[in-house]
Amino acid sequence: MRAEQQPTPGPVTSTRAAPANKAEALADWTDGRLGIYALSKSNLRKIFPDHWSFMLGEICLYTFLIIILTGVWLTLFFVPSMGEVTYEGSYIPLKGIRMSEAYASTLNISFEIRGGLLLRQIHHWSAIVFVAAMFAHMFRVFFTGAFRKPREINWLFGAGLLILGMFDGFMGYSLPDDLLSGTGIRFMEGAVLAVPIIGTYFEMFMFGGQFPGSIIIPRLFTVHILLIPGIMLGLLVAHLILVFYHKHTQFAGPGRTNENVVGMPLMPVYMAKAGGFFFLVFGVVAAMAAIATVNPIWAYGPYRPDQVSTDAQPDWYMGFSEGLIRIMPGWEIGLWGHTLVLGVFVPLMIFPLVLVAIWAYPFLEAWITGDRREHHMADRPRNAPVRTAFGAAWITLYLILLAAGGNDLLATHFHLSINAITIAARIGFFIGPVIVFVITKRWCLGLQRRDKEKVLHGRETGVIKRLQHGEFVEVHAPLPQDRLYTLTSHDQPQPVVLPPEVDENGVARKASIWTRTRAKLSRGFYGEGAQIAKPTAEEHREVGSGHGHH
User: Fold this and answer.
1) How many other C-beta atoms can be found within 10 angstroms of the C-beta atom of residue 224?
2) How buried is 535 (Cβ within 10 angstroms: 0-12 exposed, 13-18 middle, 19+ buried)?
3) What residues contact residue 170 under an 8 Å CB cut-off, 6+ apart?
4) 250-251 and 377-378 beta bridge pairing
5) Is pLDDT at 3 greater than 60 in this prediction?
6) Bridge partners, 302 (sequence order)
7) Cis peptide before 212, with omega less than 30 degrees from 0?
8) 125: pLDDT strictly greater than 80
9) Residue 99: DSSP 8-state
10) Around Cβ 294, how many Cβ atoms within 10 Å?
11) Is the preceding omega at residue 150 within 30 degrees of 0, hence cis?
C-alpha cells in the first residue's frame, strides 16, 4: 500500500489591515509572543473609584520613585568610608579640618557638583514627605475600615513599607557622618547596649569594635541603598498587585454596592490624571527643596565622639522613639552583678510592641467583632466611633511623644522649664489618649445623631414659618434620595452574645475566658452607647408628612 501524501499548507491569510507604522508593527510582533492585546483589554479598562483621599497613596508611590531616582544619582558621588581626610574644598569655615571621607564627599556634593545640593535636598525632602504620606494613607485606610477582609494582607504590606521607610530614613540621614547624624548613631548604640546579655555582643558586631569603629557607615550605606529598598520595592509591587486584584474601596453613594465599582477606567482617564499628579508632586517637592533647607550638615561639622550637637533631633517620624526615652525615669536595677538600664530598655521594648499592634489590628478587630464578610465599601469614620476614637488616641500619643522628644528645644525656645515639660509629657502619656478617646467617641455619636435627624426631618432651609397657633418654626426640606442612601447605607453590626449558661439538657455550659473577653470587647465596639441606631423606614414614613412644618 502507498501512503497518501498530505497537502502542502498554503500561506495563512489575515483580514487585519497592515500595520500603520513601525510602532504598531512592533506591538503586533510582541502580541504574537506575549498576548499583550488580550492582557491590555482586560486590565487597562479596569474601573477605579474617585475620591480626593485616594491621592495619599499616590503621593507615597511618587515620592518613593523620586527617592529612587535621586538616590541613584547621589550614589555616584558619595563615598561611604570612615577613613580620615583633610578637607580642602570650597567651604572656607571647614578648610583644613580632619573629617571622614563620607562627610567630605557630602560636602563636595553640596558645594562642588552642579545641582548637587538641590538633589540632596530633594532626596531628603522626598523621604520626609514619603513617610508623612504613608502615615496619612494608613490613617485613611484605618479610619474608613479599608483594612478589613479581603485586604488584611495588604495592610501588612503597607505597615511593613511604613516601618521599613522609617528605618531607612534614619539610616539615610546617618550616612553623611556629620555631628547631628553621629549623635543619632550614638543614641542607637546606647539603645542596643541596654539590651541584657546580647547588647554588648550586638554592639561589637554592628560597629566592628568599640563605638564608633570604622565600618558602620559602609554597612549603613549597603543596607540603605540595597537591602531595605529592595525589600520595599517587592512589598510595593505586591501591594499594588493586591490593590489591582481586590479593586479599590469606595464610599457609599447612589449605584455603589459591595458588589460593584463606580468610577473611571484606568486608561485613559486615570492614567492621565496620575501622570499629571506625579509631575505636580515632583514640582512641589522640588520647590520645598529649593526654598527650605533640611539637614545643613556644614553647620554642624564632622562627627566627633567627644561632642554632641546642641539641637540634635531625629527626623519627625522617629521622634516618638526619642520621646519614649526622654519621659522614662532613669531607673536602674542590679541583677547578678549586672546593671539593667530600665530607663532605656523599657522604651526599647515598647517601640516594637507599638509596631506589632499596628500590624495586628485588622485581625484583632475581626476577632472582636466576629465579622468574616468581605468589605468593599469604605466606612465614614463617624459610623465606627470606637475605631475612630482609637485612631485619634494613637495620634494624640504620638504627638505627645514627639513633643517630649524635643523637650530641650521647647524649653529653650519658649523659656520653659525642661523638667516641667517632661513631667507634663509623662502625665499626658497616660491621660491624654484617654481624654481624646472619650471626646472623639462622643463627637462621632453626635454626628450620627445629626445624620439621623437629617434623614427623619430633612435639612434646615433657613425659612421661618408661623403656625396657626402662633408658634414660629423653621421649614425643613426633605433630603434627596441619593443623600438618604448615603446616610443610611452603612452596616450596624450587633455585639457578640454569650451562649446560654446551660444547654438544652440543663447541663452547665461555662464560657472560656477568651469567649467572655471577646463578648465584652464586642459590646464595647457595637453595644449600647457605641453607636446610634439608624432610622428605620417606618420612622421615616411616620415623620415624612411633616417636613413642611418642622
Assistant:
1) 23
2) buried
3) 184, 188, 314, 315, 318
4) parallel
5) no
6) 178
7) yes
8) yes
9) E
10) 15
11) yes
- pLDDT tens sequence across 398-449: 999 999 988 888 898 899 999 999 999 999 999 999 999 999 999 999 999 9
Mean pLDDT (the chain, rounded): 86
Q: What is the rounded CA–CA span in Å between residue 264 and residue 50?
A: 7
Give, as one character, the DSSP assignment of residue 77: T
Whole-number pLDDT of residue 506: 66
C-alpha cell at 428: 499626658
User: What does the pLDDT read at residue 409?
Assistant: 87
Read off the pLDDT of residues 12-23 as tens digits, 9 standing for 90 and up: 455 566 776 777
Report how far apart, in Å, the C-alpha atoms of 476 and of each of 450, 483, 544, 546, 547 are.
14, 15, 11, 9, 6
Sorted by sequence, the CB contacts under 8 Å of residue 317 that are 6+ apart come out as 128, 131, 132, 135, 165, 166, 169
**What cell does 250 get?**
469606595
Q: Which three cell numbers stand for residue 392?
A: 485619634
CA-closest candidate to residue 343, choices 327, 355, 331, 353: 331
Nearest to 195 by CA among 312, 305, 351: 351
3-state secondary structure 445-486: HHHHHHHHHHHHHCEEEEEEEECCCCCEEEEEECCCHHHHHH
More confident residue, 16 or 320: 320
- C-alpha 258/C-alpha 31 separation (Å) is 35
Mean pLDDT of 457-481: 84
Q: How far is residue 498's CA from residue 130's CA, in Å, rounded to a whole number?
A: 45
Other C-beta atoms within 10 Å of 46: how many? 15
Please state, as a whole number, how many other Cβ atoms lie within 10 Å of the Cβ of residue 391.
20
- One-letter amino acid at 406 equals G
Residue 116 has what pLDDT?
A: 95
Q: What's the Cα-to-Cα distance from 72 to each of 77, 133, 226, 227, 229, rounded to whole Å?
A: 10, 22, 11, 14, 11
Find the Cα–Cα–Cα–Cα dihedral 150, 154, 155, 161, rounded to 10°. 180
The H or E element that residue 282 is part of is helix 271-291
Q: How far apart are CA 545 and CA 226, in angstroms?
A: 68
| Residue 485 vs residues 28, 256, 481: alpha-carbon distances, Å | 48, 10, 6
Distance CA 319, CA 330 (A): 19
Give the pLDDT confidence of 155-192 residue by residue, as tens digits.
999 999 999 999 999 999 899 999 988 888 888 888 88
Please compute the mean of the pLDDT values over residues 198-214 and round it to a whole number. Answer: 86
Cα separation, 478 vs 322, in Å, equals: 54
How many whole angstroms separate alpha carbon 522 and alpha carbon 95?
66
Cα separations in angstroms, 517 against 37, 124, 398, 437, 497: 54, 46, 28, 21, 11
pLDDT of amino acid 118: 96
Q: Any idea what the Cα angle at residue 134 is, between residues 143 and 265, rounded to 5°?
A: 80
- pLDDT of 2 higher than 50: no
- Reduced to 3 states (helix: H, G, I; strand: E, B; else coil), residue 340 is strand
Place of cell 516594637: 352
